[in-house]
Each structure stands twice: as structure tokens, then as C-alpha cells.
UniProtKB/TrEMBL annotation:
Keyword Plastid (UniProt): no
Higher taxonomy: Bacteria, Bacillati, Bacillota, Bacilli, Bacillales
Sorted UniProt keywords: Cell cycle, Cell division, Cell membrane, Membrane, Transmembrane, Transmembrane helix
Entry keyword Cell inner membrane: no
Gene Ontology CC annotations of this record: plasma membrane
Protein name per its UniProtKB record: Cell division protein
UniProt cross-references to CDD domains, sorted A to Z: MATE_SpoVB_like (cd13124)
Organism: Domibacillus antri
Biological process terms in GO annotation: cell division
One Pfam family named in its UniProt record: Polysacc_synt
Coiled-coil regions listed: none
Ranges that cross the membrane: 12-35, 47-69, 89-110, 130-151, 172-191, 197-217, 245-265, 297-317, 338-362, 374-395, 402-423, 429-450, 462-487, 493-513
Compartments, record wording: Cell membrane
Location, primary (coarse class): membrane
Amino acid sequence: MSSNLIRGTFILTLGTFISKFLGLFYVIPFYSIIGGKEAAALYSYGYVPYTIFISIATAGVPLAVSKYISKYNALEEYAVGRKLFKSGLVLMSLTGMAAFIVMYLFAPFFAQLSIPDSEQVYTVEQVTSVIRAVSFALIIVPFMSLMRGFFQGHQSMVPSAVSTVVEQIARIVFLLAGAYIVIHLMGGSVVTAISVATFAAFIGAVFGLLVLFWYFFKQKKDLDELLEKDKGQADVSLTGMYSEIVVYAIPFIFVGIAIPLYQVVDQITFSRAMSAIGLAKEADAAFGILNFSTQKLVIIPVSLATAFAMTLVPLVTSSFVKGDLNVVKRQLDQTFEVLLFLTIPAAIGITLLSGPFYTVFYGFDPLGTDVLRVYAPVAILLALFSVTAAILQGINEQRFTVLSLLTGILFKLAFNIPLIKLFETQGAVYATAIGFSLSIVMNLLVIRHFAGYSLRPLAKNIGLIAIFNGAMSVVVMALSIVLRLVLDEQSRIQSLFMIMICAAAGAVVYFALSSKAGLLDTLFGSRLDGIKRKLR
């Protein structure tokens, strides 16, 4: 099971990282095309409501379906999963169409929530057109999500990974080409260009779905052979099936919209709080930095946690259903250690080099640098929340996921406006950190109570990870101070050189210390030996 966890995580992590990196690097030309922070805010005003709707429309399908199918596959009741798949395709088509209609019709209402002050750069009508453009993707994405869940339930991670990458490539190509044609060839407005850019979500979904169809027909023979091995002892009705799916799915919905819910809180309260302290004219630009620019950079380390969560749920579910609690604990040990080993240095690196990072992607901006510096460490919290929530799904205690998330959101709501008034844009980041920290603590307490799992046996390795990150930080900080004497942080090229030199030095120190202490062998074991042999 440990091998399956690492292999499945690697495949999904690779696909997710490629997708996230493409989603990160396209902002460089996109930012140049659309012309800056205010336009980025307009893009975010449309995309955040879409993210909420897509999570509700898919009803947590990929993870819920993968958990359901994994459970019955472990019992060798393969026909149950196939029955769910066939009926689910119809259901997802209906929910997708319903979500599209609602979002399209209520776009003016969502726009009004985002634009409370007439002094802001964009009008309610302009935001409405952007929201309606992105809503078309809702027609396809739920259908595509169910297919991904079907493959993941059979522990076949390649189709999901490949379709995710293809979807992202198609979206970005259409987004950049469309925005460029509208502004530079047709002489159109930024609002029209942003509407085309958000409509690109529909184009990407079409290509992602075509990839999944191809994999399904390619693997259909093997999938049909599983049906021949079906025990046929489980007679689950559609009513019973969807009752169980709903129990699984509701927590998945909340996990899927966790980050977007926090963004919605910002979208509703940020401009109001900034207006209250006399900064209404700066609100759109600052919101673009908070919810678009820096969020794109921070989400990179979190993508690892997303891949872990998608792989972890079906594996932990399978072990839990079989009663292999020792296997479950080993899987959780491995997950937490590898997650922290990779996520912490990534977040710290972005924090220490926040100025060069922001300059490379968006151009030099003091506010962007300051927000990124405080936002980057929150990536560790976002990753831990995703994984702890996935563990609760795996041990069938998903109801507590809803409770912990809602508690975190409540604290975000309570602290957001006061902290924004005190610290301006950074205050919204502090409120997010408070909310997610509380949710993580609640999740860990529930895991300890119901699974008898504790992080104490991992104290030694977590301590080593902390020490090695401290050593890495000293090297990176010292190098960056020296390099700033000869390199201009306001230059994109020179900032890129600074990142490359500091990141390489930090990585060498971190992995050398980890290897010497035996931490790499502990975490990656025989797979690391195989990599070493290939390198030799």
C-alpha cells in the first residue's frame, strides 16, 4: 500500500504540478496583455464565484466517487461501481446545466457583492459580463469530474493527471490568444478580453473531457474483465447508492470550496473594509494582488497536498474497510512526513525570496512583495488542511470536516474586517491563517480520537525537517543579501538569476543534510535507491 501511495501520489503530483506551473507562468504574458493589477482583480471577481459553483455542481464527485468505488472494489463488488458510473454521468449532466443557469441568471447579484463602492475601477455591469462568460464551463466540468473519480477509484491516476494537464494547456492557449486578439488586434476593451479569458475555462474542459473519453475506451477491456470477477453479493439500489454518495460528497464539497470560500469572504468584505479606511480607489488593485497575483504563487506548494488527498482517500478507505489499522497508520505517517518535507521548504523559499518571485511574474511591486511575504507560509496551513480533511474522509468521519471548516470560516469572517483595517491587505492574510489553523487543530483532534493516531512518533523526523529548513534559510538569506548588492531586484532577469542561485544553494543544503541524517531513506526508501542506481 505504501508503494501504491507513493506511485499514485507521484503521478497525480506530476500532473497537478505541471497544471499549476502552467497556470502560474501564463500570468506573465497575461499580465502584460491585460495591463496590470486592476484587470487581474476583474478576472478574480468572475473566477471566485465560478469556483464555488463548480464545487457545488460536481458535489465533491472525484473524491466521493473514488472512495465509493474503491470501497466496493476492495470487496470485489465491481458492478456496483460501474452502476454508479453510468447513472452518475446523467446526474452530473443535469447538475452542471442547473448550475450554469443559476450562475448566469444571478450574475448581477454576485457582481453587486463584489463592487460595493462607486469609486472602484469597475462597474457592476462589467463584472456581470465576466461572471456570465465563465459560467459556460459549468455545463461540462461536472461530467468530466465524475469520469476522473471513476478512474481514481480504480487507482488509475494517469487519466486524471493527463486530462488535467491537457485541460490547462487548452485553456491557457485560448486565454492568451483570445485576450491578445481582443486588445491588440481588434482594439477591444479590457472587460471584453477578460470575458474571453474566463470563457477559456469552457474550452479547456472540452479538451480535458476528450482525453478522458480516449482513456476510457482504451481501458474498457480491462475494466470489463473486472466485472467478470464480480462476486455479485452486493445488491445496492440507486437510492441506497446515492444516499451513501451524498454522505461522502457533502464534506468533499466543503473541502473543495475551502479556499474559494475564504476568497469569497475577502471578495465581499475587502472593498468595504478598505473603503472604511479611505482606500476605496486602491481596493481593486490591492484585491487583484491578494486574490490573483500572490494566490497563484502560494498555491504551488498546496498542489502537492491536493495530489496527496486525491491518492490518500481511496487507499486509506480500502485499508480502513479491511480493518488494517496498522496499515492506515503507516500510510498517515508517510503522508505527513513527505508532505511536510516538501511543502515547508517550498513555502519558506517563496517567503525569503518574495521580492524576486513577485518581480519575475508580475514586475516589481512593493505591495505585492509584502503580501506575498506574509501569504507564502500560509501554504503550509492550506496543505495540512487538505490532507487532514482527506484523512477524515478515509476513516469515515467526514462530518467533522464540515464542522472544522465552518468554524474556520466563522473566525475568518470575524477577524477579516478588523485586521484589514489594522494591516490593510496583509490583514486578510492573517485572518485566513487564523481560520485554517483552527480547522487543522480540530481535524487532528478528531483523527486522534477516532483512529488512535498521533503525530508524536513523528516528532524526531519533524524536528529534523525543521532544523534542516532552518539551515537552508540561513544559507538562502545570506546569499540573497550578497546578491542584492550586485543584482537589481526590480529587474525580472536579474531577479530570476537570484531565485535560481538561492534555490539551488538551498536545495543542495537541505537535501544533503537530509541524506546524511538518513531522512531521505526513511521517507522514500527503496524508491530512492532505484533513483540513485539510475543516476549512476
